[in-house]
Write a structure and sequence with these properties.
Number of domains: 2
CATH architecture of the largest domain: Orthogonal Bundle
CATH class of the largest domain: Mainly Alpha
Helix content: 25-40%
Number of helices: 15
CATH topology of the largest domain: Cytochrome Bc1 Complex, Chain D, domain 2
Bound molecules: heme C
Radius of gyration: 23 Å
Shape: globular
Length: 415
């Protein structure tokens, strides 16, 4: 077909889909597009924050090196692994003392972090200002709130977030006598830790070269904040939102399958998903209580994680967690803040019908008591009264699978 003819046919088809004699499929497409726009979806490029390529290159090396842990054992890339969609494929993360990837890592005897590793898709893009399951770094008010209080190392919340893992006990520091002086996670000991780590990074000729050329500073003037800015630039660039099939459906008129469209209509319609999973990243950056049970010890011990409460100490924040963004969610099993759910289907089902997935008789008494409290808070969330059958959940999964994309650069551990 000549290109002029092709353009004419395309215009005809597209025009036809907007005419009053629109087919049922065409009408549903229009409804879905409008719903996505109304819920705040924007083209991928509108979420991009410009970064300096020299910082990205330096940041990738810092992200991959095990020198960033006091014991030389753990890199950011040890837990944030490509193969698992930049997460780690296991329910609770394994930090210091851990070896290998995925289930192998779980068996390796390292320190368990009582939270599920979060992936990086879209992190630090335009408007992405709230970090971690409990929002312990939160710049949504325009000012960065974090455990650094008045001594916050940057006004860029992603740079602040990058400061935390190397100072977190069990994540990249072991709880050993040798590290006693550095292990209290307070601001001043964190400073001592950061200078120690910085000295190590600068001993690596490749990292030293990339960091000096990115910053234009002398070796002796480079501080941890520079390395953190480099890592943040790397995360921002490598994991930035790319045009997914759903973006192309909404903004370029590309087709979805009937199943994907059905899932999309449930997502924005009767499923009520977009009341929380909305905006450019499929999150409202707010905190909600869903009855996901705990896997493992839990942040608050005894199999309990109070989530947002740990940051605000406000009792009404108990059991609440930041709504997770949904890009690449079909690649980041297991699910929830403690990784207690292994399939997307069950993750969705729990939102509306938790007892179909979990048997409370298998909980400890303490966990069951907590679970009743969590259910009470959940009953006030906008999910109450929604029912989804297996076919609808299948369609929702087909829809979520249209939100996938890849990162360009592979991420590996380095010594
Ligand atoms: C031991 C495994 C582990 C290591 C090592 C690790 N992380 Fe993480 N990461 C996690 C876990 C678990 C979470 C979720 C923690 C939470 O929300 O309480 C997380 C969350 C994050 C987040 C927040 C993402 C979001 O959606 O808000 C950022 C940013 C991050 N990590 C960056 C890093 C960087 C940079 C390094 C290296 C300096 C690193 N991580 C090392 C396990 C790890
Ligand atoms: C009331 C707000 C709210 C609504 C409505 C909602 N979600 Fe969620 N969703 C959350 C929160 C909060 C979590 C994380 C809870 C946790 O880990 O404890 C979550 C977790 C998820 C997860 C697991 C993500 C991960 O990375 O672990 C998926 C998948 C998901 N939701 C899909 C959906 C779908 C599909 C719908 C519609 C049927 C929906 N959600 C409706 C708030 C909501």
């Amino acid at each position: 077909m000549k290109s002029a003819t092709r353009a004419f046919v395309a215009a005809f088809i597209f025009g036809a889909s907007c005419s009053p004699s629109m087919s049922e499929g065409g009408l549903r497409d229009q409804v879905l597009r409008q719903a996505a726009l109304k819920a705040g979806l924007v083209p991928a490029a509108a979420t991009h924050v410009p970064v300096d390529p020299a910082y990205v290159e330096a940041g990738r090396l810092v992200f991959q090196t095990k020198k960033l842990s006091l014991d030389h054992e753990t890199a950011c890339a040890s837990c944030h692994v490509d193969r698992f969609g930049s997460s780690d494929g296991i329910p609770n993360a394994v930090g210091t003392g851990g070896r290998g990837e995925g289930v192998q890592r779980l068996m390796g005897g390292g320190d368990i972090i009582p939270r599920n590793t979060l992936p990086f898709w879209g992190r630090g893009g335009v408007g992405f200002n709230v970090f971690f399951w409990d929002g312990k770094v939160d710049a949504s008010s325009g000012e960065v709130q974090s455990q650094f209080a008045g001594a916050v190392p940057s006004d860029d919340p992603l740079v602040v977030a990058v400061h935390l893992p190397p100072a977190e006990i069990g994540e990249m520091i072991t709880d050993s006598a040798v590290n006693d002086a550095l292990k209290t996670e307070s601001v001043s000991t964190a400073e001592a830790l950061y200078s120690e780590l910085m000295a190590r990074l600068m001993d690596d000729p490749e990292i030293r070269e990339k960091l000096t050329s990115a910053t234009g500073k002398d070796v002796s003037d480079i501080v941890f904040r520079d390395a953190a800015l480099a890592v943040a630039s790397f995360i921002r660039e490598n994991f930035k939102v790319r045009s997914t099939r759903f973006h192309r459906f909404v903004f370029d008129g590309e087709p979805l399958s009937a199943e994907e469209r059905k899932g999309g209509l449930i997502f924005y319609g009767k499923g009520g998903c977009a009341t929380c999973h909305n905006g450019a990243y499929f999150t409202d950056f707010d905190y909600h209580a869903l009855p996901f049970p705990e896997a493992g010890f839990g942040k608050n011990g005894f199999g309990i994680d109070y989530g947002r409460f740990n940051v605000t100490l406000n009792p009404s924040d108990r059991y609440k967690f930041r709504t997770p963004p949904l890009f690449n969610v079909t690649k980041t099993a297991p699910y929830s803040h403690s990784g207690s759910v292994s399939t997307v289907a069950d993750a969705i089902r729990i939102h509306v019908d938790p007892l179909a997935v979990y048997d409370p008789r298998k909980f400890t008494d303490v966990q069951r008591a907590e679970y009743y409290h969590a259910l009470k808070v959940w009953s006030r969330e906008p999910l109450a009264g929604i029912a989804l059958d297996d076919d609808e959940i299948k369609a929702l999964i087909a829809f979520l699978a249209t939100l996938t994309y890849d990162s360009p650069l592979p991420v590996l551990e380095r010594d």
